[in-house]
Structure formats: C-alpha cells, structure tokens
Amino acid sequence: MGTGHSTGGDTDLYRPDEDWLASIARSAAVETGAPAELLGGYLGLLADAALTGRRPQRHELSDVRALGCQAAERGVGASRVVDLFLSAAWRLWSDLPSEVRKRDPDAAAAAAAAVLRVVGDAVAVLVEGHQAERRLMVRREESMRREVIDDLLRGDSDVARMVERAEPFGLDLGRPHSLVLAAPGKRLVDSSAVAALLERAVIGRFGDRDVLAADKDGQIVIMVPYQTTGIDARTAPNDVGVFVHSELCRIRKGDSWRVATGRAYPGAYGIARSYEEAREALSLSENLRLNDKVVHAQDLLVYRVLVRDQVAIVDLVQAVLGPLTQARGGAGPLLLTLQTYLDSGGVATQTARRLHMSVRTVAYRLGKIATLTGHDPTDPEQRLALHVAAVGAGLLGWPDSVASLSSWIR
C-alpha cells in the first residue's frame, strides 16, 4: 500500500500508486469472479476523489460506460460487474493511506462523500453501457437468426455456408428436423417476443436445445429435431404440434391459432422440404375449412395428390359440379349440403342437424344435385366422383370466386 507525493497543496498532496491499485483490482476480481481488467481506470477515479475531491469528467465516465459494453460482450452479467466495482470501492476506501485518515472529521466526511458520488456516477453509466450493448447483441442475434432461418427455409444451395451459420445457434443439420408453422387468427405486433417465449417453452418441454423459433411473414416458424423415441405426430401425448398450439394459446390468451407440422427430414434441404409441407398443410386446412386447429402434413397427403394435377382437378370440378350453377340461388347452398352430407358419412338426419334444416329439405337438395349433375350422392357407386369433386371445390375455393379456377390453371 502507498501513495506517491506531489508538490501541490493539501488537497493535491497524495497520488495513488499503480501497484497499490493493481493489488486492489486483483483482490476484487478474486472475490467476485469478474475479470480485473473490467475495472479499467475506475480505481484511479476513486482514489482521486478520495484524495482531492475531484469528480470524474465526461470523457472519463464515457470510458466507464465502455467498460460496461465490454463486460456485456465478454458475457459478464451486469450484477457481477457491479459487484466488482463495489468490492473494489470498499477495498480502496478501507486501504487508504493513514495520512488521509488523520484529516479532520469534516475533511474525511468530504472524502467519503466524493467517493460515494464517483461510485454512483460510475455504476450508473456502467449499467447503462452494459444494457445498451446487450440490446445491440440481441438485435444482432435476431437479425442473424432471421437470416439463418430464411436460408434454411429457402433451401440455400450453399450447404457449407448454412452449416457454418447455423452452428452458433446449436443446430445440428445432420439430424432430421420437423417444421412447425403457426398462423395467428389476427396480425401479431409482437411476433418476435412470442417466438422467443415459444422457443423456451419447447426446449423446456422436450429437453433438447437443438430448437430454433422465429417470426416469418406474420407467422411463427419453429424447427424441432425429430426424436425417434419421443414424437408421434398423431397420437403421442408429447406431440409437438399440439404442445405448440396449447402454449401459444397460453402465451396469447384470447387469440386463435392454426398450427401445421411438416414431416421430419434429415439435412439442410430436409428443413426446407418440411417447411413447404407445413405451409401446404396450413393452406389446405384453411381451404377445406377443417375444424382441427392442429394439422399434420402426413394426414393431408391425399389432398396433396389432388392438387398436384391442377388442370385435372379443375376439369373434374367443372365437369361434375359445374351444372350446380344453374340452380336457383347458385351452386353454393347445394355444394354446402353435398359436402356436409359426405362429411356426415351419407346420413341425411345428421346432415340436417348440422345444417339446422329439415330432413325433407336435405333430401330435396340431394335429389336436385342428382338431377343436375347426373351423379346420385345417395348411391355409393356414384358418390366417389361427387366426393372427389367436392373436395376439389373446397381446395379451389369454388364457387365463391369465379376467377379461382382460371387462376389455378395459370
């Protein structure tokens, strides 16, 4: 311990010794577990305040703020670096030269007040710098996250680059991944925050950190590694799609969600393939007006077969159901009756109950359909063409939009 001497007046009589300050820094670092170099010139400011009463200048506080930024960059938490500063201040005050302690009580009180002012100013700008850097880091990470997800979902041809960029997020692209796509019932203003909460929830539920979630085009996308012992997309209680839907409803109470899951595929291109399946499943479920809020691509394979040959399905709808447009009131009421009748397993009473009409009305409409189309929906042998055409009409949005069929052909 010691101080150097100067030729100034009493308030400028003592100057701190560098070895003394370095010893205090090392002791504070050992106690708090934070790097001693994060103290920078802070101890010099404290010693100067104790010996001369001088408050730090603006550029000196800027240097302390930079130390907060540096701590955040190095992964040192704000509480730990504050502990380092407070520990160093206590050690310096208790280890001041005896000459300072021989001052009169008023001078000692002034020195203590000066030190406390410096501690308060320094800690304030230290935390401010730490928080500012953390916000920048979060924004950079969110930007990188979006870029990585965009590359993966697009199926970027540079696989090596994708693997390199995914590595910081803990993604092992050699594992099979399933894509889960969640669409809100209304526009989200805080989709990034919802995605972050959902990612933590999925990691907590399934115990695998190889998970990545982000917002994309107003929807939430989440990549989940396939676990051969864990996930059965249709029946297992830990089904990811069901969990994601329930968690989103919990996070955003009152909002409605529709969730679609793609099948799991290995490799970087497998992620893009699973994403396309999830997107298609989501679109099909909306066009078909399915009641299920969670749908799986593998359960909609038959509908995917139908829409793959767009020209053929358009031709089938026009040929089989086109005559319904000649009915009074248009094709809509008859098509709704037909779809409900088919969904009810061909039971007229159940159809009437669902449509809130009499069985006689249902029978009349079914007869009208048979007359106009030449296909009797009550005849099992003739029902197949009507069934496929009705499904196709749902996929195409027919007959609500006259332009829907021509747009599909193009």
Write a concise synopsis of the structure shown.
The protein is α+β, with helices and mostly antiparallel strands and 410 residues long. The protein is built from 17 helices and seven strands.
Write up what this structure looks like:
The chain is α+β, with helices and mostly antiparallel strands and 410 residues long. It folds into three domains: 3-136; 170-297, Alpha-Beta Plaits (2-Layer Sandwich), CATH 3.30.70; 309-409, Arc Repressor Mutant, subunit A, CATH 1.10.10.2840. The protein has 17 helices and seven strands. The protein has helices at 18-32, 42-52, 58-73, 78-94, 98-101, 105-154, 159-166, 191-206, 240-251, 267-287, 301-308, 310-321, 332-343, 348-355, 359-373, 380-396, 404-409; strands at 3-5, 14-16, 177-184, 212-216, 219-225, 257-261, 294-296. It is elongated.
Largest sheet, order of strands side by side? 4-5-3-6-7
Number of strands: 7
Helix and strand string, N-terminal first?
A: EEHHHHHHHEHEEHEHEHHHHHHH
- Mean pLDDT, rounded to whole units? 82
Q: What's the gyration radius in Å?
A: 35 Å
What amount of the residues lies in strands? 5-15%
The total count of helices amounts to 17
* Cα end-to-end separation: 86 Å
Structural class: alpha+beta
Basic shape: elongated
The largest sheet, given as strand count, sense and whether it forms a barrel, is: 5 strands, mixed
User: Helix proportion of residues, in percent?
Assistant: 55-70%
Domain tally: 3
Unreliable runs: 4-13, 228-238, 402-410
